[in-house]
TrEMBL record:
<dbReference type="InterPro" id="IPR002934">
    <property type="entry name" value="Polymerase_NTP_transf_dom"/>
</dbReference>
<protein>
    <recommendedName>
        <fullName>Polymerase nucleotidyl transferase domain-containing protein</fullName>
    </recommendedName>
</protein>
<feature type="domain" description="Polymerase nucleotidyl transferase">
    <location>
        <begin position="590"/>
        <end position="647"/>
    </location>
</feature>
<dbReference type="Pfam" id="PF01909">
    <property type="entry name" value="NTP_transf_2"/>
</dbReference>
<dbReference type="GO" id="GO:0016779">
    <property type="term" value="F:nucleotidyltransferase activity"/>
</dbReference>
<dbReference type="InterPro" id="IPR043519">
    <property type="entry name" value="NT_sf"/>
</dbReference>
Length: 808
């Protein structure tokens, strides 16, 4: 029976096993690239994505073994090249990946093949390379040509030329088809910074101009050249020794300097190329370093770097732990500095006022404060950053050339166009309460600025300002950790979505355009706006925490379901996630308004909560029910983000009359459950329900209204819902009508339909086109359900005939 349904189930079981195996590989195989964003929900999504891409006919064991080797040895995103090769039966690429994965130039070969495949139809002619002796020529509108390049180190001209020849003249396309350089913040600079294997033992990093920041690229290149001259750091190995008697090891300052820059005149793009420097960013080092002595040493060295640059007249506007690479060796620590878009170069040593203004910018609080305590920052930048000395009552205007953007935004949002230095200082001290790391009640280290930094890049400065203010309210209401939990989970969901998208587009021509049409973006915006709108009222703010926690629970339950593929288990899990909050709401409503009974019907009573479900409530009361209905409706909306309908509003004495008078309430009679009420009222209701279902006249009238309606449906999504209702009615009515059914098969069909009902709603909520179910499967399900339900109708017809005979 239902062979097609069994085939679908078998295919699901195969994928479940694959997902489990992939989850195990992802969880147990060390991967530096994957470690930056490692989390179990990501592994579940990756596992499901990869399992769905493995062809049925492929040798699963062989494929899984290769995937594990890719993860352990290479960039995990090369998995997509392998999956693409299997899917398209590209035998050359399959053989390349399977036979050469252990070779040192493996990634270079795969990347090059991807470039050739993706740009095959776009390479209209070979472009010419023109080398210039002056970088300014690249930015001149009058300079003709295709690719205009400047190679700073003459000894590396052959290196650049060979790279140009490898790309067959299409160097910008060659770079763009490579993967982004992975790191703590690689997702927020999508498409701008790439990693390329130059040869078997050397990688380079390319950086292209950001089209949203016109002129910054040129400014940075000029600043790098000037700093290189000022500090006499002409070559890759040049350094300045900053060691002194207090140094534990030698302290050396080095500069990340591109060995080449070029302009693609046809596409109006600019790129810089530099060797990939080994080491970790200072942010990564300080994020995980717990030893106070080691932390102090790094911060002391940061102060040395800052003071040295000040003395040379360099105000490094982008000074930040994330822009410093640390390479610790035996007896020496090298600090490589990079990113000079906002650097200001003076013709004199920076004055104390200039130094203090620089430290009142982003560097101390927003950059070092992201991973250092306030005391660490004050100690490191003593003399320049001393918030305890700020004048909080000054009526002077703000003297800074560039006041902090986020503080200005908060003033503007409050309608304060003019503000004094005292007001500015007071606001910054308030903001600082939600800037620096802290340890929560569970002894976990929390980093509020990581949230703000990501939101600023994902959603823009307006949402950064809102996030700062809502965190200030959370701090005031003593619920900062709970609020951060929600924001961090929402950001993690978005990160995971972007990583999955990065993998899915790894075999396409990447651009800088990011698809913002996805649920995770919308949910993050909804959370920020929701908290921000409630920031002035503590009770509403806390209700929002409950509401968004519920939304996140449902999101993660769905990810769990991906690895199980059972509709009923998902629905029950959804119900469980909502049950506690819903029952608390109804219990509170019952206690405050004292109705006779509160009933539940619909999906909640049947254990079928899916995406887009609402809550069907019945009120049995002798009093006016308008206030209790208002309370329930508002509470469910606020705390569960669900809508609610009231299918019943009647006194206990009139329950039976109401149901018997309206055959359309048959489903509510069959599936309705009592949520609250005293024992006497519950007993009366159950007796009335029993009498209704024993009333042959009622069944003879009500059943024919429903079953024919659910036996048809045009669209697949409608069919799923109709057939599910038909299945439920058949299961519930058969005992009352006296028809024998195969309960096991009907429950299997219900499981199957419920899963796909949830899938359709979920996919649509994520702006995706749902996967269409096989028409043959739906046809067989429909035939079987119509056969079973028709037996019910036949019995009802017999019952009607018998009733007429009895009446006559």
């Amino acid at each position: 029976m239902l062979e097609a349904l069994k085939n679908v189930s078998n295919e699901q079981d195969r994928k479940v096993k694959l997902v489990g195996a992939i989850l195990n590989i992802l969880s147990t195989t060390p991967s530096q690239e994957l470690s930056y964003y490692a989390n179990q929900p990501l592994y579940k999504q990756l596992g499901n994505y990869i399992a769905n891409k493995i062809p049925k006919e492929a040798d699963s064991s062989k494929v899984l073994s290769l995937i594990q080797r890719v993860i352990s040895r290479c960039d995990f995103r090369l998995i997509e090249d392998y999956l693409f090769a299997l899917e398209t039966q590209d035998n050359y690429l399959v053989n390349l990946i399977e036979s050469e994965i252990n070779k040192p130039d493996f990634q270079q070969k795969v990347d090059h093949y991807r470039f050739q495949r993706l740009t095959k139809g776009n390479r209209t002619h070979n472009r010419k390379l023109i080398l210039k002796d002056n970088p300014e020529a690249l930015f001149s509108e009058e300079t003709p040509g295709d690719i205009i390049a400047y190679v700073a180190d003459p000894t590396l001209k052959n290196t650049f030329t060979s790279l140009f020849e490898r790309s067959q003249g299409h160097l910008s396309e060659y770079i763009d088809t490579h993967h982004d350089l992975l790191g703590l913040y690689s997702l927020i600079r999508k498409g701008l910074v790439k990693s390329i294997q130059l040869n078997s033992d050397q990688f380079i990093v390319t950086k292209r101009d950001n089209p949203d920041k016109k002129g910054r690229f040129l400014t940075e290149q000029r600043n790098i050249n000037r700093i290189s001259d000022i500090l006499n750091l002409k070559h890759q190995d040049s350094f300045v020794d900053l060691s002194d008697q207090s140094s534990i090891h030698k302290v050396r300052l080095k500069l990340i300097k591109p060995f080449a820059i070029f302009a693609d005149k046809q596409q109006h793009k600019f790129y810089s190329l530099a060797y990939l420097q080994e080491g970790k960013t200072l942010e990564e080092v300080l994020l995980y370093e717990q030893d106070p002595t080691a932390r102090f040493e790094h911060l002391k060295n940061s102060q040395k770097i800052l003071d040295f640059l000040y003395e040379k007249g360099v105000i490094w506007g982008d000074m930040a732990p994330r822009n410093t690479i640390v390479n610790q060796m035996s007896g020496a620590t090298d600090y490589y500095i990079l990113d000079f878009e906002k650097t200001k170069i003076l013709n004199h040593s920076a004055s104390l006022t200039e130094r203090q203004e620089h430290c009142r910018g982003q560097m101390c609080v927003e950059e070092f404060g992201a991973i250092c305590s306030l005391e660490e920052v004050k100690t490191c930048f003593r003399g320049y950053f001393e918030p305890e000395k700020w004048d909080l009552n000054s009526l002077d205007p703000v003297p800074f050339e560039k006041p902090k953007r986020e503080l200005v935004a908060i003033f503007e949002a409050r309608g304060e166009e003019f503000y004094t230095l005292g007001a500015y200082n007071r606001l910054e001290q308030q903001v600082m309460k939600v800037r620096f790391p802290f340890t929560d009640g569970a002894k976990n280290k929390r980093h509020p600025l990581h949230i703000c930094f990501k939101i600023d890049h994902y959603l823009g400065s307006e949402y950064d300002q809102k996030t700062t203010e809502l965190l200030m309210s959370a701090y005031e209401y003593d619920c900062l950790p709970d609020t951060m939990d929600i924001l961090e989970q929402a950001l993690q969901n978005l990160d995971n979505r972007l990583i999955l998208g990065d993998l899915a587009t790894a075999t396409t021509y990447n651009t800088l355009q990011e698809n913002r049409q996805c649920y995770e973006y919308d949910f993050l915006e909804e959370v920020i706006n929701g908290f921000y709108d409630r920031k002035e009222e503590s009770h509403q703010f806390r209700l929002a925490i409950n509401r968004y926690n519920t939304g996140l629970k449902l999101y993660h339950i769905r990810l769990d379901e991906v690895t199980k593929r059972h509709g009923i288990s998902l629905a029950k899990s959804n119900c469980e996630a909502l049950r506690t909050t819903l029952h608390r709401i109804l219990k509170s409503a019952y206690a405050n308004y004292r109705p006779t009974l509160i009933l539940l019907s619909g999906g909640f009573s049947r254990g079928e909560i899916t995406y887009g479900s609402d809550v069907d409530v019945g009120i049995v009361s002798d009093k006016d029910s308008s206030e209790i209905k208002k309370f329930i409706k508002n509470s469910i909306s606020e705390e569960l983000s669900l809508s609610s309908d009231f299918y019943l509003d009647v006194t206990l004495q009139d329950v039976e009359k109401r149901f018997l008078g309206d055959p359309s309430l048959l489903e509510d009679v069959l599936h309705g459950q009592i949520a609250n009420g005293d024992s006497k009222a519950i007993q009366s209701y159950e007796q009335a329900k029993k009498r209704i279902l024993q009333n042959k006249n009622y069944l003879a009238t009500a059943v024919p209204v429903f079953i024919p309606k659910y036996q048809v449906g045009d669209e697949t999504e409608v069919q799923i819902k109709q057939y599910l209702k038909l299945c439920n009615l058949t299961l519930a009515l058969a005992p009352h009508v006296g028809v024998n059914i195969n309960k096991g098969i009907l429950l299997s069909i219900k499981d199957f339909l419920l899963f796909y009902k949830n899938e359709y709603a979920y996919e649509k909520s994520k702006y995706k086109e749902p996967n269409v179910l096989d028409e043959g499967v739906m046809s067989e399900i429909g035939l079987y359900l119509r056969d079973q339900s028709s037996a019910l109708l036949a019995e009802i017809d017999r019952l009607k005939h018998q009733l007429k005979l009895d009446q006559s």
